[in-house]
């Protein structure tokens, strides 16, 4: 594919394979390395970058030390916390390797070791098909490639599409299953400012955590065992001893989640007019439930701390995205842009073949509005519960296990069973029946108010159609179920499909009753998705041609595959007469400190700041102790924990947030406002040296205590 080489340095989440084509731009921006090396996933620095938890991390030692964000590893911290050992509040410094704490069983690190284009193989069997048949053909071809790829032990493979069905890539990743907690700062450092400061600048959070990856005695990926030994990555990043300053080149590698910059004007309108405000309202209801339940029960508060943090982050992100898209008049801007694209297309020779397909895309998107709220609420019924989700997964296994593995639903193949079992094992530390019933009540009370056309017979039968019937049903189900017992969950997981079908457990009976509805909704969605997968490439072909004519960047929307961005340390002009410097210092921690959550800086930190021993860490020009810094790097969700490198490829920061003015960048990029927020590695090193010391860890990181 041709690239728009005129693209600005601050825009673009580039596939590594694209970087040699923009080498001139990279070098002009200040990069000192060889762009060709960045395209090779077997070479440093990209082979040191991993997908971990729901974000990104990077290896920083030859013995498998991995650094990521505090919030990316928050589930690990929560999993190891108890009322009598509150690691969330107090943090954790492993005294030695024997003291490193096992992560939750489903926590993984994946290192990308292969990324190969497989478009022809994926689409060969889909030609001439439509709807569900097209979806199934792509799905079958993807599963076949994945199965072939995963014959190699210790790897997980997947097929990713670029440009919405135009191209397909086989992604091969080494999966590390034994991660351990090594160093985590207290909440009041790792999450200083909490939701008050979330997506805001200036920031003063030490949002980092250090983990270690382990493998079996044979050097291969393995589940946790005391006999395991540290993983030796093929390379690791070197932490810089010098910091950054305004105007310095920076580069980021990571796994950005999803962007929507190439979506249609109708989808932009749906996002602004319905999806964002509705999602905020629904998630806020769930947040209120967890906070209310946690006030009276500290155990429940700890069990749901990770889920609550995720909800709060999502709510603020969606709120900021809505405000940003409205501020940018995104709907009108995208509508005008799309109209201009279609007018341009009408003058092109391929208009007759592309325009009818584009019209079909528009019609399919319009159809999806009919059931959007129903699908949102029913989807959250499983994703925001623990015991219910586990029961639905076990019930689905009863459907999928009798099938040939290649015919099983993705997520329920043999390759997925170990992850499902790990999720079932950890429920005990993340579940409380009172909280779960209240969460379901919040969702289904809203569902019961939907128009009759959006109601689902099976859901109504299980839970009733009134609040009173819902409360009675939940009390009966959760009062009688034994699925809350780990041994019973393990027994059912290992049971035959026939035995699962015969289970009289109240929650399993409910899951079985809901199954036809969930399968029907899934089938409807796959039919729509199949046609969109078939037809969107026509829209993308027109859009790419139009963008190249404009001289604008052409890169795929993010989809959780490895990407690289580059830019500079940059100040922010937020609005008239409001300009922000790009670096913050510990003085800001003191200024914000109130002694109360969320600005309750720990006494050891305040004492160290007051002492003023910043030798070896302070900014050479000002003498101040840095905390966080801003850049114009192009990022989105999933880039949390991504390493930020300087021109020499050294680690200078960890990405952890975006500014409020740029939350909407997942849909619309605006170079005036798009900024990324990073922890300065000087602050991490200083904390490990002077505040919560770990001299052995600093030595292993190659930056010994001063």
What does the secondary structure layout of this molecule look like, with pairings?
Elements: H1 23-29, H2 35-38, E1 49-52, E2 55-59, E3 65-68, H3 74-79, H4 87-90, E4 92-93, E5 101-102, E6 109-117, H5 119-123, H6 131-149, E7 155-162, E8 167-176, E9 178-184, H7 187-190, H8 194-197, E10 209-215, E11 229-230, E12 249-254, H9 265-296, H10 298-303, H11 305-327, H12 330-345, H13 351-367, H14 372-383, H15 387-400, H16 414-426, H17 433-448, H18 457-463, H19 467-480, H20 486-494, H21 497-502, H22 506-550, E13 563-568, E14 572-575, E15 578-580, E16 583-585, H23 586-592, H24 603-611, E17 626-631, E18 643-645, E19 651-658, E20 676-680, H25 681-691, H26 695-700
Helix pairs in contact: 6-22, 9-11, 9-12, 9-17, 13-22, 14-17, 15-22, 17-19, 18-22
Q: Kindly state the percentage of residues in helix.
A: 40-55%
What are the low-pLDDT stretches, counting only 5+ consecutive residues below 50?
1-9
Mean pLDDT: 95
User: Which structural class fits the helix and strand makeup?
Assistant: alpha+beta
Largest sheet: 11 strands, antiparallel
Number of DSSP-assigned strands? 20
Question: Tell me, what's the shape?
Answer: globular
Percent range for β-strand residues: 5-15%
Distance between the termini: 50 Å
Q: Report the total helices.
A: 26
Radius of gyration: 25 Å
Task: Provide a descriptive summary of the structure in words.
The protein is α+β, with helices and mostly antiparallel strands. The protein is 45% helix and 15% strand. The chain contains 26 helices and 20 strands. Strands 1, 2, 3, 4, 5, 6, 7, 8, 9, 10 and 11 form an eleven-stranded antiparallel β-sheet that branches. Strands 13-12-18-19-20-17-16 form a seven-stranded antiparallel β-sheet. Strands 14-15 form a two-stranded antiparallel sheet. α9 packs antiparallel against α12 (330-345). The two termini are 50 Å apart. The relative contact order is 0.18. Mean pLDDT is 95; it is low at 1-9.
């Amino acid at each position: 594919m041709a690239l728009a080489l005129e693209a600005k340095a601050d825009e673009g989440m580039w596939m590594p394979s694209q970087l040699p084509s923009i080498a001139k731009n990279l070098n002009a921006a200040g990069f000192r390395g060889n762009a060709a090396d960045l395209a090779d996933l077997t070479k440093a620095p990209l082979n040191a970058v991993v997908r971990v938890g729901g974000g990104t991390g990077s290896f920083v030692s030859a013995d498998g030390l991995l650094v990521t964000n505090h919030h990316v590893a928050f589930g690990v911290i929560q999993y190891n916390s108890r009322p009598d050992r509150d690691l969330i509040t107090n943090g954790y410094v492993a005294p030695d390797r024997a003291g490193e704490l096992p992560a939750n069983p489903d926590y993984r690190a994946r290192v990308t070791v292969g990324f190969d284009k497989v478009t022809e193989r994926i689409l060969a069997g889909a030609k001439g098909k439509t709807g569900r048949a097209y979806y199934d053909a792509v799905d079958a071809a993807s599963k076949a490639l994945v199965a072939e790829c995963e014959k190699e032990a210790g790897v997980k493979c997947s097929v990713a599409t670029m440009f919405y069905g135009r191209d397909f890539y086989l992604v091969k990743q080494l999966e590390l299953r034994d991660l351990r907690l090594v160093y985590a700062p207290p909440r009041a450092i790792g999450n200083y400012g909490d939701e008050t400061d979330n997506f805001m600048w200036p920031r003063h959070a030490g949002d980092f955590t250090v983990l270690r990856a382990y493998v079996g005695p044979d050097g291969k990926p393995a589940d946790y065992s005391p006999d395991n030994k540290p993983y030796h990555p093929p390379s690791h990043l070197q932490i810089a001893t010098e910091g950054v300053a305004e105007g310095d080149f920076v580069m980021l590698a990571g796994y950005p989640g999803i962007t929507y910059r190439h979506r249609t004007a109708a989808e932009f309108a749906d996002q602004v007019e319905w999806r964002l405000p509705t999602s905020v309202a629904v998630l806020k209801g769930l947040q209120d439930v967890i906070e209310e339940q946690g006030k009276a029960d500290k155990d429940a508060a700890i069990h749901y701390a990770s889920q609550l943090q995720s909800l709060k982050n999502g709510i603020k992100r969606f709120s900021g995205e809505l405000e940003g898209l409205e501020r940018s008049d995104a709907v009108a801007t995208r509508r005008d842009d799309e109209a201009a694209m279609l007018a341009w297309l009408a003058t092109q020779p391929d208009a007759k073949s592309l325009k009818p397909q584009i019209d079909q895309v528009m019609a399919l998107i319009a159809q999806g509005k009919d059931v959007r709220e129903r699908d949102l609420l029913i989807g959250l019924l499983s994703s925001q519960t623990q015991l219910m989700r586990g029961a639905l997964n076990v019930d689905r296994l009863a459907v999928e296990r009798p099938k040939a593995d290649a015919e099983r639903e993705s997520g329920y193949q043999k390759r997925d069973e170990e992850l499902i079992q790990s999720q079932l094992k950890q429920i005990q530390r993340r579940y409380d029946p009172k909280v779960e019933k209240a969460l379901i009540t919040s969702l289904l009370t809203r569902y019961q108010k939907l128009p009759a056309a959006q109601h689902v017979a099976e859901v109504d039968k299980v839970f009733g159609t009134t609040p009173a019937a819902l409360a009675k049903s939940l009390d009966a189900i959760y009062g009688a179920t034994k699925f809350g017992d780990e041994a019973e969950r393990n027994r059912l997981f290992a049971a035959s499909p026939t035995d699962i079908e015969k289970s009289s457990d109240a929650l399993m009976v409910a899951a079985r009753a809901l199954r036809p509805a969930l399968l029907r909704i899934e089938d409807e969605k796959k039919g729509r998705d199949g046609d969109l997968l078939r037809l969107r490439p026509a829209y993308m072909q027109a859009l790419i041609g139009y963008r190249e004519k404009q001289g604008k960047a052409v890169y795929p929307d993010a989809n959780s595959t490895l990407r690289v961005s580059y830019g500079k340390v940059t100040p922010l002009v937020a609005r008239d007469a409001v300009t922000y410097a790009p670096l913050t210092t510990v003085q800001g921690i003191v200024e914000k400190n109130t002694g109360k959550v969320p600005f309750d800086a720990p006494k050891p930190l305040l004492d160290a700041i007051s002492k003023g021993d910043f030798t070896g860490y302070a900014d050479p020009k000002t003498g101040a102790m840095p905390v966080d810094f801003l850049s114009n790097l192009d990022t989105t969700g999933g880039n949390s924990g991504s390493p930020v490198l300087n021109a020499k490829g050294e680690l200078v920061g960890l990405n952890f947030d975006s500014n409020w003015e740029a939350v909407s960048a997942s849909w619309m990029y605006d170079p005036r406002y798009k900024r990324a927020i990073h922890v300065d590695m000087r602050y991490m090193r200083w904390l490990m040296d002077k505040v919560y010391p770990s001299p052995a860890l600093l030595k292993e990181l190659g930056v010994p205590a001063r």
